[in-house]
Amino acid sequence: MSSSQDTNDAAQKAKEAAEQAALPYKWTQNIGDVDVTISVPGNLKGRDLNVVITKTSIKAGVKGQDPVLEGDFPKPIHVDESTWTLETLGDGSKELSIHLDKVNKMEWWAHVVTSAPKIDVSKITPENSKLGDLDSETRSMVEKMMFDQRQKEMGLPTSDEQKKMDILKQFQAQHPEMDFTNAKIS
């Protein structure tokens, strides 16, 4: 990678970090779910909050005030598996903690709500996720998807395309009398 590419990546990462830090909430994700935290005054109780979670959107904040987080999810969630709690922190302050269970457990979200700035999901590495927590079949599927995404970004064949080319080469080697110069592979 060239140093100008490194500089561009660093500048993009810094811009992304600044955009995410400016949000009135913090969020993290792994391949299966998203967790959002919102700081709230320490004197509030759960009944003082307004949290509405649907399959495709969220609205969260203090009753009587503009929502801190409001908008449409990039992808649907399982409402019955999603929760929110009000937690008291060690310093006496409180935090609204929202857990969202993704319907599609095979893709990263670029943002919690579509109106928020995006993060570059292609830079997410398995170490950032709980890839090790997945069963072996799901894990290998996620790793294959990530490999194929990187291959596409570099203009290289995906694992499936590579497999087809290898089968064709093997067939050509076994049948040298056949001409494959104009063969289209799909």
From TrEMBL:
<dbReference type="Pfam" id="PF04969">
    <property type="entry name" value="CS"/>
</dbReference>
<keyword id="KW-0963">Cytoplasm</keyword>
<dbReference type="GO" id="GO:0006457">
    <property type="term" value="P:protein folding"/>
</dbReference>
<dbReference type="InterPro" id="IPR037898">
    <property type="entry name" value="NudC_fam"/>
</dbReference>
<dbReference type="GO" id="GO:0005737">
    <property type="term" value="C:cytoplasm"/>
</dbReference>
<dbReference type="GO" id="GO:0051082">
    <property type="term" value="F:unfolded protein binding"/>
</dbReference>
<protein>
    <recommendedName>
        <fullName>Nuclear movement protein nudC</fullName>
    </recommendedName>
</protein>
<feature type="domain" description="CS">
    <location>
        <begin position="20"/>
        <end position="113"/>
    </location>
</feature>
<dbReference type="InterPro" id="IPR008978">
    <property type="entry name" value="HSP20-like_chaperone"/>
</dbReference>
<dbReference type="InterPro" id="IPR007052">
    <property type="entry name" value="CS_dom"/>
</dbReference>
<comment type="function">
    <text>Required for nuclear movement. May interact between microtubules and nuclei and/or may be involved in the generation of force used to move nuclei during interphase.</text>
</comment>
